[in-house]
Sequence to fold (501 residues):
Amino acid sequence: LCELDECVIMACPTCANTTCSDASQTCADPNKDPDSTSDWTCTCVAPAVGSATAKVAECVCDECLTSTTCVDANQACFDTDKSCPSKNDFTCECKPPSKDTAIGAVALCTHDECIDHAATCTSAGQTCEDPNLTKDGDWVCKCIPPTVQVGINANKTVICELDECAIMGCPTCANTTCSAVSQTCEDVNKDPDSTSDWTCTCPPPGVGTATAKVAECVCNECLSNTICSSANQTCHDPDMACTSSNDWSCECKPPSFDTALGKPAICTFDECKDHGATCDAIGQVCSDTDQVSVGDWKCECIPPQVQIGVGADGHTAICELDECVATCPTCASTTCSDASQTCDDPNKDPDSTSDWTCTCVAPDPNKDPDSTSDWTCTCVLLVQPPQRLLSVFVTNVSQLISVQMPTRPATTQTRTAIQRTTSSVNVFLHHLTERLLLLLFVLLMNVLTVLQHVPLLAKFVMTQISRVVATGNATASLHKHKLVPLFQCNLLFVNLMSVSL
Fold:
């Protein structure tokens, strides 16, 4: 299979390849069948556009197809000379309504967009403004002074407001009218269609407001004064003219009517006048120790009742009556004490009376009035009686003696008797040792007791010496100095333990 590419044939003046390359074009043979000749084409090299069959193509160089300069600026592009040797001669042309052009560059398009959009602004009572005539879509509506813009609508109209107090530089302006008398101007409704609704307001401590004119000010000093209210009192200003100052006073609230100029009053009132009946109703007495403060009244118990708490309301008292505390010839405590008995009131409710009791005093081993602090604590010793131990011992010995001479059948009986006797002797000796130790303990306690009473003995000796010196009589009673009862008690205890052993 053979093919013929006419663009490959070289070195001849009329060859296809030579013809195209001499014109700086490319050669292409679309049909390489050897029977198909003279169908080769010359094609212009980019950016030129054009092709021709079996000859040089006529190339066209449209710079608007290769350059985006005009398109990027949203302008139209025109290339009047599209021959390839002609370069940078394209034209950028502004889109209507602007007609400005520029060759080889972006045109400076100027157009006042308000020519087209002014009606939108004027219909809202506003003016149109195009800040940049070379830029499209930047036109805006503007508020007409003295109104100011505070927002914008979707149709590009703006939201305007009119603050009449902001207008300056005229004798009858709102701000001038108010400031001339040191009052503040305020325009509550700033709608441009709402005018002459501004107000003048008095400066503190003055109070007063007027619309579209100067206000008449009232200076009530009590409005800004917290001195009286902090003291729970009422403030009063007799002259509320702004030229009158420091004439306010504090007045006490009823039932007190004290007043003080320029400071809190000292209010005094006995609250028991109002609350005394509350205390009387429960058998108590009302007390208001501080008549300056309020709410500190209280009920107090009537003697001989005593207070042990405060009621849930914080004023009434919780009282109790101990009938054994009161002292009088017929009182409970006197009645019991005269009989050397103790008094006890088990129910101390003030409504529960005559329920006190007298109780006998516990016995005292020595009831001599001069013998005090001689009561004793006694230890009780639980021991096995020695008579029983001795009986067991004698019985076992008797059994041992009554046994005949040992024989073979009696050997077991004899051993049993001997074992019992030995056991009895061991038990007897064990208990004897315990009692000897106990006796030694008692003797030691006696010695310690005597040593404890050495100061008392010394006092007794010194007393006798003093009497001999003063009267020459050495007679004295050992009983009054607690010596004989003490030694008798100890000797008796020792003797009892000896007999027991």
The two ends are 159 Å apart (CA to CA). Confidence is low (pLDDT under 50) at residues 378-389, 400-410, 472-483. DSSP finds twelve helices and 24 strands in the chain. Residues 46 and 61 are 8 Å apart (CA to CA).
